[in-house]
Please model this.
Amino acid sequence: MGTAQQAAGARQSLIRESNLGLVLRTVCAADAPLSRADVAALTSMTRSTVSRLVDDLVSTGLLDEVAPPTGRQGRPATPLVPGTRWAALGLQVNAGYLAARVVDLRGRVVGERLEAQDLLGSDPETTLVALGDLAADLLRRVPSGVRLVGAGLALPGIVSVSSGVLLSAPNLGWSDVRPADVLAASDRLGGLPLSIGNEADLAARTVAEEAPGRSGSHGDFVYLSGETGIGGAAVLDGRVMTGRHGWAGEVGHVCVDPDGPVCRCGSSGCLEQYAGKRALLAAAGLPLDASPSDLVARVEAGDPRASQAVDRAARALAVALAGVVNVLDIPTVVLGGHLGEAAGVLAPAVEAMLHERVLSGRWVRPRIVTAPADPAPGATGAALRELAAVLAGPAPWTDRATAVSGP
Model:
């Protein structure tokens, strides 16, 4: 074959790969199943081209054909939906739990394992081995025929995504940890490649994406992840703003009072010292294992100490968030974790103070919304990030995926 023919063949291969991705993303982005004709209209490709590409995607399980609706005259079109045979493993380590979750291309949780633990000041290797055991048990239960494209791990702290190193997680007491080394040595992930990311960045993805490739109801927002501490992420047009080094969004360590209490990060007066879960419960006079609903009940019952704790937390949140909104011009704030659970007593005061403190508040009033209830959103977000690579370029995944056998 001559050079010109080789070049032409390479171009055709690239065009096909690009079109495969376009078709897959178009189906995944749709709120309702699409027909081949619908895909052709949305992508401006011919019906015959779309039909060939769909056949390839269906044969590999990246798309599924479902039964057409009944009761229509004529020959109904066969609807297309994301496939159920492709999934990713999402893992999460937080100060209060370990989580492992398998999510498929439709955004469904195929299986999960959650284990409550007190991991403040924990040993990294011991904890990661326990996480690997949790993941291995989950993978043994995944239905036969499901293919995993990779594994993602959500961690609370400063993460170097490119090098795979957790640089610092103050609430865990970890620094300079490379999780892949521990998990690969034990082979608990069955050879799946592992990537890591910041817990709040990945949790924010679950708000920006309802399912792989399908946008959520909010495209621009500031996300606060409420756990023992507070993580944060800024999302613009559905994408997390990671910053130059990938460390943006640490709202929990914005100083709201330079003379405030010392934080685990080494600074003082950080937001999480006022609105973090443990700080909030302690200020309310509740045990540290109490739930946010216990705090809400105390406030609604008129308990003065609980009310003062919530007022203090609301003021700290407003001070920190006003700075973020003024700098970034993103007036929607999404509260997750314990902050979302306590939003009924926190949000009204925070919104009122933001309206006063945000420069643009007189034209676009800042608003507080809550994230969907999820005990481990970082794990879901980690899986979504792995699946995004499939949507970006589906052609190679039929050879690279790892098949997992069920029980």
